[in-house]
Write a structure and sequence with these properties.
mainly alpha; 4 helices; elongated
Length: about 80
């Protein structure tokens, strides 16, 4: 459920937000919501162990490959290594 939130923000930041909103074709509300979601995730990440933090988000910018393609590549490399 969405609720309305009123913010008091500096005039320059409001102007920047409007311009950025137009450039990225997203509403200011969605930008603010995404920002808070990011803060919320960061809070959870801070609780992770050091080694897990290093891996966290490593694939977030890349789409996951297809399972069939991954299997094929794995088996090709596996058998190639056996032949050496």
């Amino acid at each position: 459920m969405n609720k309305k939130l009123t913010l008091n923000i500096d005039d320059e930041l409001i102007e920047f937000a409007h311009n950025y909103s137009k450039q990225t074709k997203q509403s200011i509300s969605s930008m603010v919501e995404k920002y808070f979601e990011k803060l919320k995730r960061k809070k959870h990440v801070d609780k992770l162990s050091k080694s897990t933090k290093e891996l966290y988000g490593i694939l977030s910018d890349k789409p996951l490959p297809d399972k069939k393609v991954m299997r094929k590549e794995f088996h090709e490399k596996k058998y190639w290594l056996i032949l050496i």
